[in-house]
Specification:
By secondary structure, the protein is α/β, with parallel strands linked by helices. 39% of the residues lie in helices and 17% in strands. Strand 16 and strand 17 form a beta hairpin.
Length: 609
């Protein structure tokens, strides 16, 4: 064997087989997890070759509008004909074929909802711009998933409706060797597909396999059945066989597995568990040579063993095909859909008429810097031109004819934009004597770890410290990790606990950040034992009263906050303070810096991506 010749990867062989099945039945659909590169390009070229221009393929842009996706008013034709002319949407253009979603992990929820609705109902109902249309559509979806992290995935509703979940990430370019290039077989299988039958045993095996793997969606076995029928058509058979069912389980059900099937205990073990230990076993009888059940009889035939059922064969093959990484997570008892969230993932989503990502249009006038959307304005005015006057063709001095469009105030549409605000995490550290005695070192280490996490996400951080008679700003909002560490290193411990002043300072800083358009988050690390009042006078009773008053004022701002009780044992005062602030309470009696940091990250509410 020539060592320079590289055998195709098993994952690539499955991808080629999935492409051939998609060419036979595009309604199966697939999601391809892979960054843009030669492997993904080869797979797409292979799919186009298998289709052989028999079925249409359309690419769906990331920021596609609803009118372009589903259909709407053809503005150019409407203005020329002076009557509403419908425009076929992109889904209608791909009827019977495949649409390709680029960067499917970033598509909007609206686009995903429209596509999943069409996949379910196989119909597009258009009621907009003075048009009412109903179009029957059958289309397959190929979603390219270019997400880098585990949480960057296409919407679950879309993934649930796609048969193949392929991962081409670990396939090298030299292993992506195409092995299927006969489009005539695909064409013959496509004609034979409607005649393929499946027995009740096949249906029962697919359903029981899905249930054993913890797959509760009924779409999974239905998609597996569709894949099995297409595989039978490729082999030129008229009925789904065991091999087809095994193939469908391996390609469709295995990537969806949510649990490992429980193996049944042998009957002998069950009998031993149910037996009574106090009863002596019956005495052994000597073998009777005339007894047909004598085990020593050489002429005695061995009773036939129970043959594995169709369900057992499909389940065993499917379980063997579960990816190694997914199998390890399932063995550890973790759901593959679980996502770890950390503090301050993103700021609040705000809509604006000036800047940000496009987010549709709305009816309104271009005031206060809002941008007029000319296309949507003309689209709103076009259907009403016949009712707004008769003099459309005015003759200018040159003798040529021009078309005038009457636009009224109600036709004006302005563009909308959305953007994520910047997140600023304010760490308020108790550096008083009681805290320094107990947990100041751990608090400093935890804050440094949290600062590093915020720096990775490019969030802004600020540090407030309170000790003695007041609170001071050690670090104003910044992205500099070096400055943050220096401010913490120079933080001494000791003195009183001016808790009310610390909460007031955090409230003022959060309000300032919000006024500049940011999203503040407060993390307060304290033992809750305030003993310095607002005016700097000592006295625990008055200090606690001022702290509760400051906490109630903080709660009015509706700023998200977390109070970490750093005392050796949970303090009722700290719990009461968290309640008055409207903050989450987290008690950590025993923890080092890393455990404290992890607990804070898990307890903080994560913003939507």
């Amino acid at each position: 064997m020539n060592p320079s010749v590289v055998a195709p990867s098993p994952a690539w062989e499955d991808a080629v087989l999935a492409a051939s099945i998609l060419a036979v039945d595009p309604l199966c659909g697939a999601t391809i997890r892979s960054a843009a590169g030669p492997v993904r390009d080869r797979w797409l070229v292979l799919l186009r070759e298998l289709l052989a221009d028999a079925l249409p393929i359309r690419r769906v842009p990331l920021q596609i509008s609803d009118a372009r996706l589903l259909g709407g008013l053809d503005l150019a034709a409407t203005l020329q004909a002076r009557r509403p002319i419908a425009d076929r949407g992109l889904l209608a253009e791909a009827n019977g074929g495949i649409v390709i979603l680029a960067m499917a992990e970033r598509i909007s929820s609206t686009t995903a909802a429209h596509i999943t609705s069409v996949l379910d109902t196989e119909v597009v109902i258009l009621e907009r711009d003075g048009l009412t249309l109903r179009t029957d559509i059958q289309v397959g979806v190929v979603a390219f998933d270019e997400g880098l992290a585990d949480e960057e995935r296409p919407p679950e509703a879309l993934l649930d409706r796609l048969a193949f979940h392929l991962d081409l990430t670990d396939i090298r370019a030299r292993e992506a060797i195409s092995q299927w290039n006969d489009s005539t077989v695909i064409a013959a299988a496509r004609k034979q597909l409607k005649n393929i039958q499946a027995s009740d045993e096949i249906l029962r095996a697919l359903c029981e396999t899905a249930l054993a793997l913890g797959i509760l969606s009924i779409r999974a076995p239905l998609l597996a059945l569709r894949v099995a029928r297409a595989a039978a058509a490729l082999d030129g058979r008229s009925e789904v066989s065991l091999d087809d069912a095994v193939l469908a389980g391996r390609l469709v059900l295995a990537p969806r597995a949510l649990s490992i099937p429980m193996s049944e205990a042998p009957e002998e073990e069950i009998e031993e568990e149910n037996s009574d230990d106090s009863n002596d076993p019956p005495p052994e009888e000597p073998p009777n040579p005339e007894d047909p059940d004598d085990p020593d009889d050489p002429e005695k035939e061995t009773p036939p063993q129970d043959e594995p059922t169709l369900e057992d064969l499909v389940l065993a093959a499917t379980q063997a095909a579960i990816p190694a990484g997914l199998l390890a997570r399932l063995a550890a008892g973790r759901d593959k859909s679980s996502r770890s969230r950390s503090i301050g993932r993103a700021g609040e989503l705000r809509y604006s008429g000036l800047r940000g990502r496009p987010s549709g249009v709305r009816r309104g006038q271009p005031r206060n810097g809002a941008r007029l959307n000319v296309v949507e304005t003309l689209r709103a005015a076009a259907p009403w031109q016949r009712l707004r006057g008769r003099d459309f063709n005015a003759t200018p001095a040159s003798g040529t004819t021009t078309t005038r469009i009457e636009v009224r105030l109600d036709d004006f549409h302005v563009s909308r934009y959305k953007q994520r605000t910047e997140t600023t995490t304010i760490f308020v550290v108790d550096a008083s004597g009681s805290s320094a005695l107990h947990r100041l070192a751990e608090a400093k280490g935890a804050v440094e770890l949290l600062l590093a996490e915020s720096y990775v996400r490019r969030d802004r951080v600020a540090v407030l410290a309170f000790r003695g008679h007041s609170a001071e700003i050690l670090l104003p909002p910044t992205r500099s990790l070096v400055r943050a560490k220096r401010s913490l290193a120079a933080l001494p411990g000791g003195g009183g606990t001016p808790l009310a002043s610390a909460i007031d300072a955090a409230t003022a800083m959060a309000d300032s950040i919000r006024r500049r358009g940011g999203t503040p988050t407060v993390v307060l690390l304290t033992d809750g034992r305030g003993n310095i009042a607002r005016d700097g006078a000592p006295g625990r009773e008055r200090a606690i009263e001022d702290a509760m008053s400051a906490a109630r004022l903080f709660r009015i701002t509706s700023v998200k906050a977390l109070l970490v009780d750093t005392s050796p044992s949970p303090q009722p005062l700290a719990q009461r303070l968290a309640t008055e602030m409207g903050a989450r309470y987290l008690a950590l009696p025993y923890a080092d810096a890393r455990r404290l940091s992890t607990a804070v990250q898990r307890s903080m509410p994560a913003e939507a991506q």
